[in-house]
Amino acid sequence: EAQVTQNPRYLITVTGKKLTVTCSQNMNHEYMSWYRQDPGLGLRQIYYSMNVEVTDKGDVPEGYKVSRKEKRNFPLILESPSPNQTSLYFCASATSKEGTDTQYFGPGTRLTVL
Amino acid sequence: RKEVEQDPGPFNVPEGATVAFNCTYSNSASQSFFWYRQDCRKEPKLLMSVYSSGNEDGRFTAQLNRASQYISLLIRDSKLSDSATYLCVVNIKGYSTLTFGKGTMLLVSP
After folding, report:
1. How far apart are the C-alpha atoms of A24 and B36, rounded to whole Å?
2. Which segments of chain B have a pLDDT < 50?
3. B contacts of A41 (beta carbons < 8 Å)
């Protein structure tokens, strides 16, 4: 089954404790992206990647890092999480290399930073 | 500017009703348009792309008006299962990203 998976699905952590949210897709897509979704603000892009070892900032990259060492994986790293990073996070991959066509989203990771 | 604007709703309609949502976009370089559906606390899923000539998929019809810079989604014969948030999504030429509206909530009641 074609899908995007994320882990963990739920996470409660404390300020400053480094964490990684994994994302994996089995559709051989070159384009992958991370979004956060907050009430009243909608979906905002954090980072995206158009290929292995190619990453670019989205609209809200501060406080986040990503890496793209393999085509199928695109982990999101929070080196020192803060309470304002409490949010619902979605990973997505896209059929087009530029990410301008259909995007397939993972199930989401609900993160709470205390 | 990359803004995409939607009425947040909620739109409350009875089963069987016809309902329409509009979405305006500010950047005239926008070149691709989509409607996504998002159920509560779930991931967004593509509902349909929007083509210049307008397109229909069952009970759903999407229209694009480039002159006025808006797209619309019409849902006929609403079902309870149509209750969700509908996201208007735009790609702007030259950007390798999609810009999402904040969504319009639809509630269909028996």
Report:
1. 21
2. none
3. 102
